[in-house]
Amino acid sequence: MDGICTLANDRVYDQLIALLNSIEAIYGQEMPVCIYPYDENTARITAEITHRPHVQLYDNQDSMQQWDEFVRNIWDAHPSAQKQWLKISNDKYYRVGTHRRFCAFDGPFDRFVYMDADTLLMSPLEEIFTQLNQNDWVVYDFQYLDITHVYNQLAPKLTEIFTPQQLQTEIFCSGFYASKKGIFNAQNRDILLDKLRQGEAEVLYSMAPDQTVLNYMVMRSGISNYNLALHLSNSEKTGCCVTSTHFETRNNILYDKGKQLTYLHYIGLSSNLFTQVCQGENIDFPYRDIFLHYRYLHEPEKRPTFTNKPKVYNEPPSLSKRIFRKLGLKG
Question: Which of 256, 125, 124 is nearest to 179 (CA)?
Answer without folding.
Answer: 125
